[in-house]
Amino acid sequence: MEASEQKPSLLGLNVADLPDDGRAYRSRQLAEWIYGKGAADFAQMTNLPAAWREQLAAEWTVDPFVKSERFESADGSVRYLFTLKDGKQTEAVYMPYLNRRTICISSMVGCPAGCAFCATGAMGFGRNLNVAEIVGQLLAVAWQEGIEPRSIRNIVLMGMGEALLNYRNALGAIRTWIDPRGLDMSPRRITLSTVGLPGKIRQLIDEELPLTLAVSLHAPDEETRRQIIPTAHAHSIVDIMASLHEWQRRIRRRVTIEYTMLEGINDHEWQAVQLAQRLEGLNSHVNLIPFNAWGESEFSSSSRAVIDTFREALEQRNVSVSVRFSRGQDAGAACGQLSLQRISHETLPLAY
Fold first, then answer.
1. What does the alpha-carbon distance between residue 266 and residue 270 come to, in Å, rounded to a whole number?
2. Is residue 138 part of a domain?
């Protein structure tokens, strides 16, 4: 590995800890170049003294990645494949809409949760991403797309990995995103997804950050959940729900329940009834997600008719619910598909 690849990224520092040249305002200028203007190279930072820029370049880098590859979907979303300095890889998904820009960010290489219907889970666990590698995904997308980093106003920590098992680094990245000198983002625009770790949810409560919490429940009964989420035996649904009620009492934010619809497994009407019972007293919204095909997966998505019946059963019991059709299916970018693939539009079938 070349010496330049050994240099740490400034993105790994708290914004308040960015270096200066002896004058405090220089660190604020540096932060503005990185997080405001999206400068990826010190040579672009033209209002900083040339000698200091040379010193920064000798000791630091901005980009934490060796390579960033771009795979565009026909629907306009883009999957990014990042090669890290140790040769491992991770991914992010950029989703531009008419009135907003959203990015789905990873917290790990692979994932230890092992959800049977998820391509990332099938990869197993590689390692945790550090703060620079988490923050850097958004900045790398901004560089590639030719936009300012602060124009991306919605972040979902729903990519590779279980963010709450990389707690310190995920929280470090969130602190940079919400720092007024960083991305100046409202915590309410950041969604953190978890498979359901009650202890970590309670730890997150103490941070007093009004994030949006998304819980990948996927089944209302223990038997089915343990069948499709092998690690679910460690935490009962009862304990998960108790932690969500605690979250709501303290943080006062609606909880999102993620539910991937798997044909013949978790899509029965009795399961919709049981799910509604589980959610009683909790301010929540259920996202029903048609399963997205990948590789050698043995699962199939529930039919549209079955999904509609499941949705109606929830609505009849006063549960807020919607069907979320994932973007980027043809580029391997949809929910549950992230697996470091180099694929074209034609490789993966669309669910609908």
1. 9
2. yes
pLDDT at 326: 58
Given 59, 258, 335, 346, the catalytic residue = 335
Task: Report, as an integer, the average pLDDT of 238-256.
Answer: 97
pLDDT score, position 347: 40
Residue 91 bears catalytic tag: yes
Q: What is the CATH number of the domain that holds 18?
A: 1.10.150
Q: Are 339 and 123 in contact (CB under 8 A)?
A: yes
Q: What is the mean pLDDT of residues 290-312?
A: 88
Q: Which two tokens stand for residue 123?
A: 């990869």
C-alpha pair distances (Å), 107 with each of 7, 19, 29, 127:
21, 26, 28, 9
Supply the pTM of this predicted model.
0.90
Measured CA to CA, the distance from residue 347 to residue 304 in angstroms comes to 23
Catalytic residue among 91, 145, 162, 258: 91
How much is the pLDDT for 224?
96
The band of 5, judged by pLDDT with boundaries at 50, 70 and 90, is: low
Tell me the per-residue pLDDT of 103-138, one tens digit each, with 9 for 90 and over.
Answer: 999 999 998 888 888 877 677 788 999 999 999 999
124 domain-assigned:
yes
Instruction: Please state, in angstroms and rounded to a whole number, the distance separating the CA atoms of residues 11 and 316.
Output: 48
Q: Give the total number of structural domains in the chain.
A: 2
Strands 108-110 and 125-128: antiparallel
How far apart are alpha carbons 92 and 104 in whole angstroms? 6
Specify whether 35 is located in the same domain as 143: no
Are 116 and 181 contained in the same domain? yes
Write out the residue range of the structural domain in which residue 310 sits. 65-331
Residue 330 has pLDDT above 80, yes or no: no
Residue 282: its H or E element? none
Mean pLDDT, residues 214-240 = 93
Say whether both 52 and 79 belong to one domain: no
Clarify whether 335 is annotated catalytic. Answer: yes
Neighbours of 276 (CB within 10 A): 19
The pLDDT of residue 83: 95
CA-nearest of 204, 192, 200, 196 to 228 is 196
CA separation, residue 271 to residues 177, 275, 304, 311, 321 (Å):
38, 6, 17, 11, 14
Structure tokens at 240: 């998960």
